[in-house]
Design a protein that fits this description.
Distance between the termini of chain A: 41 Å
Protein name (chains A, B): UspA domain-containing protein
Low-confidence stretches of chain A: 1-10
CATH topology of chain A: Rossmann fold
CATH class of chain A: Alpha Beta
Structural class of chain A: alpha/beta
Pfam family, one (chains A, B): Usp
InterPro entries (chains A, B): Rossmann-like_a/b/a_fold, Universal_stress_UspA, UspA
Shape of chain A: globular
CATH architecture of chain A: 3-Layer(aba) Sandwich
Mean pLDDT of chain A: 82
Oligomer: homodimer
Number of domains of chain A: 1
Organism (chains A, B): Miscanthus lutarioriparius
Strand order of the largest sheet of chain A: 3-2-1-4-5
CATH superfamily of chain A: HUPs
Largest sheet of chain A: 5 strands, parallel
Chain lengths: ~160, ~160
């Protein structure tokens, strides 16, 4: 049967969850913990986060002057702090589910590539993500990250939307 | 918490699986049974199938003559037979999982509308589908059914690809 290669519930699956600074990705993580992860234990949750690469225009300020190395370092520090906060919050959510082993993976780059590459590299059995991560502007120009992953990742992709209040 | 409205594993979730004549949708169904449906029972699986509406050109044959009512009836019979076979096969797969309650739902129409409407009407907690159902031609003109559902259904959408041999 086609499912022979897929571990059955609780038999040590690697479930990857893409986390970003939007609350939708936290909702996706919660949904996955409540509905997909085996309550009997044995699954590994891999939290993957794409840290934005330093944008090109960051090398100059708005007046066209080169930014000082202090300012560049500050931009970099801010990006790192955001990444750390995102991953810490996701780990905190997972801490309520002690039967799940948690790993984290942070890479710089376009989230579409980071997430698909991570899913392939870690041989994920499932990729879970929100539908609208990574901002309106990026989505308008580059298309939805979740659409890209649903089309390009080899593993099953679960797209979870933010519930309407 | 956002997950409060979502039943936890095994607590009577309604999981909708879109089935068509492609083997990818059978794989999606199998993956769902092995990885999402609670082994403890309590979940309901709703098999939804979109029967193709009779195409407009079916009212005339290639020479432009009106088709006889016999021929129209035969086209209709064939479509019904295909639908019945798809649903029967999916039910047969589910029969190996007696802890799951199975319902079926067959509607005529564009699969994108049929599936999204069904998920809303049945208040599905999750929609599961293959990524490439409903044929190359339709996809080229209308876009992927799974992309449409991932963007437009309110519930989480799990897209399962056919494994590469």
């Amino acid at each position: 049967m086609e499912t022979a290669a897929v571990a059955s519930s609780g038999a040590g699956r690697r479930i990857m969850v893409a986390v970003d600074e939007g609350e939708e990705s936290l909702h996706a993580l919660n949904w996955c913990l409540a509905n997909v992860v085996s309550p009997a234990g044995g699954d590994t949750l891999v939290l993957v986060h794409a840290r934005r690469p330093r944008p090109v225009y960051a090398a100059m300020d708005s007046a066209g002057y080169m930014m000082t190395s202090d300012l560049l370092a500050s931009v970099e520090r801010h990006a790192n702090a955001v990444s750390a906060a995102v991953v810490d919050e996701a780990k905190r959510v997972c801490a309520d589910h002690p039967h799940v082993k948690v790993e984290t993976m942070v890479e710089s780059g376009d989230p579409r590539d980071v997430i698909c590459d991570a899913a392939a590299k870690m041989a994920a059995d499932l990729l879970v993500m929100g539908s609208h991560g990574y901002g309106f502007i990026q989505r308008a120009f580059l298309g939805s990250v979740s659409n890209h992953c649903a089309q390009n990742c080899k593993c099953p992709v679960l797209i979870v939307k933010r519930p309407k209040e």
